[in-house]
Amino acid sequence: MDALTRRRFLLASGVAGAGALMAGTTAIGIAELLRKGDRAVAGSQGQVLVLVTLYGGNDGLNTVIPYADPAYHSLRPELAYPQEKVLHLDDALGLNPKLPGLKRLWDEKRLAIVSGVGYPRPDLSHFRSMDIWQTASPLTPIHTGWVGRWLDGTRASPEMAVSFEPVLPVLLAGETRAGACVSIGGLTLPEGIDAKMVAELGRPQPGEPAMQAQAATSYTDLLQVERLVREVEHADDADDKGGEPAVPATGTGGASALSTQLSLVARCVEAGVPTRVYSVSLGGFDTHAAEIAGHEMLLGQLDAALTSFVDRMGQTEAGRQVTVLVYSEFGRRVVANASQGTDHGTAGPVFVLGHRVAGGFYGEQPSLADLDNGDLKSNVDFRQVFGTVLDSVLQADPAKYIDGYQGEPMRFVPVG
Predict the structure, then answer these.
(1) Which of 17, 61, 114 shows the shortest CA–CA distance to 336?
(2) Contacts from 239-242 at CB under 8 Å and sequence distance 24+?
(3) Residue 110 in contact with residue 354, Cβ under 8 Å?
(4) Of 13, 26, 42, 181, which is least packed with CB atoms within 10 Å of its CB?
(5) What is the pLDDT of residue 21?
């Protein structure tokens, strides 16, 4: 392919100029990421944090269930699970019956549940609430995420924080630094363009501007990402895990195929990639109607993906340094709506999993007898949760990166 044709293609595709800058600063290929790994030192490069975002607002009351509280059954008779179906954790709380893997991790002391997590003056907008969680700034809108500020403060390179989501979340955006984004959505080529032509676009050209060359190389990475994702999916099929049902579209964000995202994280960890923070997601939790069936499907996917990942991570020293934190932008209202679903609520549980986790309950389950206009009252400020992983996993001062952080870390992940 001659240089003129190549340049025209790049311009038409939007990857020259500003697009090239984007590719050079926040986009990275999985193959390039794996090349940065060193299996010989895997596990010695530090602890790793995996953030799992549940987009749409997960119903915490039907995830961690207060099965022994009569108010739970009386306030939501359409949605409440009978005691005998709940996976009991103690004499008051239990897990949804679609979470048997998490129940096993609980029994093995590898699952911590932080109850009643929220933030001051709750906002019931999906987008504003998620922005609050990812920026860790509940009172003042800002454009940097708490992980992005950590990247700024440590002057880290983009591969230190990687998102396997369609777009880079604000979580990983800083003032001077940003994490890397690796999409796993698959490769769809325009009509008349085949993989061979894309590969040709990635070949260096004499005298080419550096940014244009960098952008062109990203096309080769697309092919490498495609191959690697297909390998992960075939491996899942070989293990008889089966495919994941499609997540219902709700327009609230998040990716599907959580197992595939976590399989890619696992490959990077095992390869000794220097990344310290990974961001993955599962969408579809905006359960306004017919909640039981949709919510159970999502929790089943979450359970299978998380437990498989944690089990795999237990097989290597590098994997045993990984901590997983699962959160959503808000919970749901206590009382069901007329469509057998729930509307936007407030506080909910946060899960923390891994081989370094001190399993058990943290915080306090919100009272169903003391509601705020029909919503749960939070007992734990979410900044305390994020501050704990900054301190215990990333060995950073929480007060430096989270405005309003107060008190001591919660110690669901021991220091050191």
Answers:
(1) 61
(2) 241/304, 241/308
(3) yes
(4) 13
(5) 30
